[in-house]
UniProtKB/TrEMBL annotation:
Protein species of origin: Danio rerio
Bilayer-crossing regions: none
Keywords: Disulfide bond, Glycoprotein
Keyword Disulfide bond: yes
Keyword Ribosomal protein assigned: no
InterPro entries recorded: Ig-like_ZP, ZP-C, ZP-C_dom, ZP-N, ZP_chr, ZP_dom
UniProt xrefs under PANTHER family: SI:DKEY-19B23.11-RELATED (PTHR47130), ZONA PELLUCIDA PROTEIN (PTHR47130:SF3)
Official protein name in the record: Si:dkeyp-50f7.2
Location of the ZP domain: 416-687
Length: 720
């Protein structure tokens, strides 16, 4: 066999079979089958149409004779042109490779998928088969039912193409010789054409579900997975999560994919665009597969809705005689907000202090009107007007969600007039005088200062004939009057920074007591036999004991809390006063049971040094503690006051100062003056120093007494 490529290439039959050619013979026929891509084929243009050519001469040898048989086959591989609606196939029927120009065509037939069709079928499908001088022209409408449409992908974009396999069959003869039947099966694929996908957003905001439709697709596209905010879910996993993914098939065979996702799902990105509106965003990446080729592509999109769905927290409140009661409705934000009460954010400690309770929809708390977070607006003779300010704010954007204020009048006695001629008065720091320091207030007599004061109150107790109190008579009534002021032109200091502030507004509180000069009261009574002796009912109350460090041994001036730490020289005296407050009973006496010094602030910390043990000075201390007597000139009730003195010292370790500070602590017991048991009548041992420095153990009998725990501030050892 000699193949023409078009150069000659000779092969014996065995080599031709090994090369992949199919060659069979019968008594009357020779059949040759070869592939388009075999090296023994070649391409040649015929009237502008490329044709694939196989041309071979076969030699048959029989005895002394040789027979040559020339065979040639030409198959078109081109000749196509396309419009949006029509495929045109042009076949050159005058082919010099197959014969001479003297060709007579007896039949020209058309078929689809290897089967001939008649003219009625052609007319119904819109097929056209014609012949001109050079070509046989076949026209096939794109999209007809005899072909099919196939999906494709170009640069991750969805495309489609139309595929059909027409057949052309010719019967011709030339030069009066035998007729030749020529059949061409010619698969046609249109170029890939872009098919932009349409995303239809059918979301109804009130239903709070994203509803989107993506399509159209051909039947050979399958949805494999969807990626939401980086989370990849298969269709089965998405439906199991509560989504709804469905195929929607249309009458023309195409389909789309419908997706439902609730707004509440965690894969939905939620952004609060303003105080009342929320934007819900669903980022989507569809993952598709074209079968059976398994070509993957994706479609990236995002849907977003914004609407006003936020119900802000609301605050309501009420009062009784002692507390504010605040209720916060959470709205639909949950509890992802902070609460500011007054000027402080409520941390866990303050939440526990105010007893905050949360039932999921509402949050409640109770605020005593004397709390630090309550502002005092006005003080009256029998009440105090206080206000609580509540701010609910969002910690991320720091936006205010709700602002609420509630002011109420709370019963509170500001002035008390006693029948023995003593007067007590309470001055309150209100918000209109923010720079006022209550301890600097005084009565008309500048020497009359508060008996007790803190950052918000000053308590005065004085006799009606002292402290500059005036007396006026009218209509049978005697009026005693005094005034609490900050002094003439007195500048107050803010304790926070010790800097001189501008003069505060004028602060004056008038204290008045009225007594009837002459009054007759009629009292009626009846008597009855006494069945049993009257019994005294035990009363209950609170007595306060304080310990202060005096500036010197006169015990007339004392260090305030803000003065600590106090610096003192080594071995310089420290004068301490322990005083009972809020009692006018001279029969009550505070007794110092134990006093000791420590390096650290904790009462139970170590090391420690005993100063007073079981009511007596520590005889093992070479710098012995000294008690000083209290005279009536120094205190109204001398039995209520104890003065003692120690020498400033420091703790040593290996003859080196280990710490340059001390704290002094005491346990005080309140005793009746005539009480004769336990610590109240402790007999101290000989004043001679003991050789042992062991601590004297406390009497077990003393354990039944109620003790008051006292501690000083830090006292620092001064080196200069």
């Amino acid at each position: 066999m000699v193949f023409f490529t078009p150069e000659q290439k000779a092969m014996v039959l065995e080599d031709a079979l090994k090369a992949g050619h199919g060659i069979t013979t019968t008594r009357s026929r020779l059949a040759i089958r070869t592939g388009y891509d075999m090296p023994e084929t070649y391409v040649e243009n015929v009237s502008g149409v490329p044709m694939k050519i196989i041309k071979v001469t076969t030699y048959f040898k029989k005895q002394w004779s040789v027979t040559m048989l020339d065979t040639v086959a030409a198959c078109p591989i081109g000749g196509l042109s396309f419009t949006d609606e029509m495929i045109t196939w042009s076949f050159p029927w005058k082919n010099h490779l197959l014969g001479t120009s003297d060709i007579i065509i007896h039949e020209m037939l058309m078929g689809i998928d290897g089967r001939l069709i008649d003219s009625a079928h052609m007319a119904a499908r819109g097929f056209i088969l014609t012949r001109n001088d050079d070509f046989i022209v076949m026209k096939l409408p794109i999209g007809g039912p005899d072909g099919y449409t196939k999906s494709g992908v170009v640069e991750n974009l969805y495309h489609t193409r139309y595929v059909i396999e027409p057949m052309l069959e010719l019967l011709w003869s030339e030069g009066g010789m035998d007729s030749t039947r020529y059949r061409v099966l010619f698969p046609v694929k249109t170029p890939l054409m872009p098919r932009p996908l349409q995303l239809v957003d059918l979301t109804v905001v009130e239903q709070r579900i994203f509803d989107v439709v993506l399509g159209p697709f051909l039947h050979d596209v399958e949805l494999v997975n969807i990626t939401f905010s980086g989370v990849v879910l298969t269709v089965i996993e998405a439906n199991a999560r509560g989504f709804n993914i469905q195929d929607q098939v249309f009458q023309n065979g195409s389909k789309s994919f419908r997706l439902n996702v609730p707004f509440t799902d965690t894969l939905v990105v939620r952004t609060q665009t303003d105080l009342l509106a929320t934007t819900y965003t669903l980022p989507i990446i569809y993952g598709f597969m074209i079968v059976p080729e398994y070509v993957a592509f994706s479609y990236v999109t995002s849907v977003q809705v914004t609407f006003q769905d936020i119900v802000l927290p609301t605050v309501t409140g009420s009062c009784d005689k002692e507390q504010f009661y605040i209720t916060i409705s959470n709205g639909n934000l949950g509890v992802d907000y902070n609460i500011m009460l007054g000027t402080r954010d409520l941390n866990q400690e303050l939440r526990a202090e105010y007893g905050i309770r949360d039932n999921g929809t509402h949050l409640t708390l109770a605020v005593p009107f004397l709390s630090l977070d309550v502002a005092f607006e006005l003080m009256y003779s029998t009440s105090l007007r206080a206000r609580v300010d509540v701010l609910v704010w969002e910690p991320v954007s720091k936006r205010s969600l709700s602002d609420f204020s509630l002011a109420c009048n709370f019963p509170m006695t500001m002035t008390e007039c006693f029948s023995n001629g003593s007067i007590s008065a309470l001055a309150v720091k209100v918000e209109s005088v923010p720079q006022l320091v209550p301890k600097n207030l005084r009565l008309q007599d500048p020497s009359c200062r508060p008996k007790f004061s803190n950052d918000r109150f000053a308590y005065f107790s004085f006799d009606a004939n002292s402290c500059g109190t005036t007396r006026t008579f009218y209509d049978g009534v005697m009026m005693y009057q005094n005034e609490i002021t900050s002094g003439d032109g007195l500048q107050v200091f803010q304790q926070a920074n010790k800097e001189l502030a501008s003069p505060s507004p004028d602060y004056r509180v008038t204290v008045s007591c009225f007594y009837t000069l002459n009054e007759t009261q009629m009292i009626s009574f009846t008597s009855q036999p006494l069945v049993r002796a009257p019994m005294v009912e035990t009363g209950y109350g609170e007595l306060h004991v304080v310990m202060r460090l005096a500036l010197d041994g006169s015990y007339s001036n004392f260090y305030a809390e803000e003065d600590y730490p106090v610096a003192r020289y080594l071995r310089s005296p420290l004068f301490f006063e322990v005083m009972l407050l809020q009692s006018t009973d001279p029969r009550i006496e505070p007794v110092l049971e134990n006093c000791w010094a420590t390096v650290n602030e904790g009462r139970e910390s170590t090391p420690r040094w005993d100063l007073i043990v079981d009511g007596c000075v520590n005889l093992g201390d070479t710098r012995r503690t000294h008690f000083h007597s209290v005279t009536p000139e120094m205190a109204q009730y001398p039995t209520h006051v104890k003065h003692f003195e120690i020498k400033m010292f420091t703790f040593m370790k290996d003859s080196v100062v280990s710490q340059d500070q001390i704290f002094v602590h005491c346990d005080a017991v309140l005793c009746a003056v005539n009480q004769a048991d336990g610590i109240c009548q402790r007999q101290c041992p000989s004043p001679n120093p003991l050789n042992s420095r062991n601590k004297v153990r406390r009497d077990v009998a003393n354990d039944r007494f109620q003790r008051t725990l006292l501690s000083s501030g830090k006292i620092h050892l001064s080196s200069s």
